[in-house]
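so i finally got all the pieces together for this one. its two components total, 233 residues if u count the protein bits. some of the lines might not be protein, just check the labels. i wanna see the whole assembly predicted at once instead of chain by chain like last time, that was a mess tbh
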Amino acid sequence: DSGVTQTPKHLITATGQRVTLRCSPRSGDLSVYWYQQSLDQGLQFLIQYYNGEERAKGNILERFSAQQFPDLHSELNLSSLELGDSALYFCASSVGVGAQDSYEQYFGPGTRLTVT
Amino acid sequence: AQKITQTQPGMFVQEKEAVTLDCTYDTSDPSYGLFWYKQPSSGEMIFLIYQGSYDQQNATEGRYSLNFQKARKSANLVISASQLGDSAMYFCAMREGTTGTASKLTFGTGTRLQVTL
C-alpha cells in the first residue's frame, strides 16, 4: 500500500458526461501528480500541484481540469467525455520540497474510467 | 524523439534466474533521475528503484539493481533470482531537473516480464 488513495476505483459513464476523480496524497506529501494510462498513448503526465498551486502541465486537454485543496487532496475533473478518454487515471504524490531530486513518486491504485 | 526507450516489449525468464530489462534515455539536462516501476496485472504502479544522475554507485534495492551507464545513457534494471511474482509490466521513467517542485515523470512504453517455472 503506497499510502495514496484514489476514488472511485472504477467509473463507467456515457459520452458527453462529466466526472470527478479524487486523490488523497500520502501523509506529509505536498505534491500531487495526475497521469493517464491508455493503450494507445501509454503513461502520460497530465498536471502537477504543489501545496495548492499548479506547478506543471503536460498534455492535458482543455476539457480536463484539476485542483488541490487546502487539505492537500486533489480532484481531476473530466468533462464532455469522449470514448478516447477511457483510460486508467493515476494520482501520485511526493514530498516535492526544495531541490532534492531523489524523492520518489508514490502512485495510488488508479481509477479506471470507461466511457461508453 | 523518445526520451525514454524500452526496446523489449516482452521478456521471458525462468524462475531463480536473473534478467535484465533495458532502458535508454535522452536528455541534455545534467541533473536528472531515473526510476523503475512495476505494474502487476492488478494495475497499481509500484516504485522499485531510483538512480540520480550524480550518483557514483549503481542503485540497489534487494533483488533489484540498476546498471547505470551514463555515457551510454542507459539505465537497465537487473532482477536477480526471479520469482513468479515478478511477472508484471516494468516501466522505466525519467525526471529532469532539480527544481523539486515541478518534476513530472516521463515513462517508457514498458516491458512485460513473464517468469516461468
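Chain A touches chain B through 33 residues (CB under 8 Å).
The first strand of chain A starts at residue 5 and ends at 7.
anyway lmk what u think
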